[in-house]
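ok posting inputs for the flavin mononucleotide job
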Amino acid sequence: MKKIAVLVGSQRKKSYSKALANNLVSLAPESLRLEIVPIDQLPFFNQDWESDLPTPKEVEEFRQAIGEADGFIFVTPEYNRSVPALIKNAVDVASRPPGQNKWGGKPGLIISNSPGSISGFGAYQILRQSVGMLGVRLMSFPELFIGGVDKLFDDEGKISNESTREFLADSLKKFENWVNKHVK
Ligand SMILES: Cc1cc2nc3c(=O)[nH]c(=O)nc-3n(C[C@H](O)[C@H](O)[C@H](O)COP(=O)(O)O)c2cc1C
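and the output
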C-alpha cells in the first residue's frame, strides 16, 4: 500500500478542486491510499524560520506529512493564469530548509481544473515547473486538464459523467504503475 498525499489549491467551501480530490479518493486503485493533506492552515513561508524565528508547529507537521508520503497528487485551480498562492506556499514550505527538500525523488501527478475550456492549463504548467525543479517525478501522460468542472458533479458532489469517471480511474491506474516504478 502506497501513501499518496493529495494537495488541493483552494480553500473555498464549495471548491470544485476539493470535490474533484474527494472523487479521486474513491476512484483510486486499492494499492494507493489517497489522503488529502490540508494546506489552508499553513502560514506564509518565512525564511527567518531558518535563522532567528521559531518554525510554526503547522509547518513542522506539514513537512512531516510530506516526508512520510510515497507520492503526491496536486489538484489545482488556476488563478490569473498561474497557481493559487495557497498551493505555491505549500510547495515552498516543504522545500526548505536547505538540504531538507521533502518533495524530491517521489512520483507526482498534477490535475488542473477550471469551469472554463482552457482547463487551468497555465496553472498546470507553472506548477510543473516548480515541483519538477524540486525533483518530483511527474507523470506526464496522460495530461489531466479538467474543463467545465462546474458541470461535473451531482448534488452529493459525485462526478455524474461516466466518461470523466472512467478517464480519472484509468489515469489513476496509470499513476499506480508510475508510483510502483519509482517507489520500492
Ligand atoms: C483570483 C482569481 C483568479 C482567477 N483566474 C482564473 C484563470 O486565470 N483561469 C481560469 O480558468 N479561471 C480563473 N478563475 C476562476 C476559477 O477557475 C474559479 O473561481 C474556480 O471555481 C476556482 O477553483 P475552486 O472551485 O477549486 O475554488 C479565477 C478565480 C479567482 C478567484
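notes: Residues 64 and 177 are 25 Å apart (CA to CA). The chain is about 35% helix and 15% strand.
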